[in-house]
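Anyone able to model this chain together with erythose-4-phosphate?
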Amino acid sequence: MKIFLDTSNIDEIKSAYNTGMIDGVTTNPSLIAKEGKDFKEVINEIVEIFKDTKDTSISAEVISTNAQEMIKEAKELVKIHKFIVIKVPIIPEGIIAIKELSNQGIKTNATLCFSANQALLAAKAGATYVSPFLGRLDDIGVSSLDLIKEIRTIYDNFDFKTEILSASIRSVDQVSQVASLGSDIITLPPKIFKEMFKHDLTDKGLAAFLKDWEELQNKLDK
Ligand code: E4P
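re: yes, here you go
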């Protein structure tokens, strides 16, 4: 399963990239706004971090709501680098844009997916990725894990190639949960990515090993 980082913060991306565990990055207008910098400047900085990577995926979102405008924006964004994937909201105009971009060989990430039917449309339109938003569904009391299960079944039934990119992640437990349901990718806020490495028993176990080792060295030195 691929792991993407869900942030536009350059320092966080650099530090996570150095672990060797990060396969891509997702951004959205809110995440870009949080950094208070120019959109293209941020995207260029992210591309720079991944410059030695053979293949990665950096999602940059369009802000138009009209298909032709979305396509125009997409064509400008893909000029930045071959790693750029165009994030398009699943609205009727967005589906038209995804279909056209996919016909032109431009990779897309169908975003703001909250239902299996939306995921079905995204796949029919030829989206590279579909991004179901787990946290926002759970916030309104709808089981996001059931949605992942349903999308996986539909995509497998019809052999759709669109990859499921689980997004809007709120807890570290959701990582293994969506992995066991067959999500192809997960995009994680840096804080949750860091939590993946942690377990209290690992820390306690390591402390005990090191202490016992030191005691043995002290005994042998005497
Ligand atoms: C990523 O593709 C999404 O834009 C992001 O995961 C949304 O997360 P949020 O619901 O925490 O804003």
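Residues 6, 26, 28, 111, 131, 133, 135-136, 167-168, 187 surround erythose-4-phosphate (CB under 6 Å).
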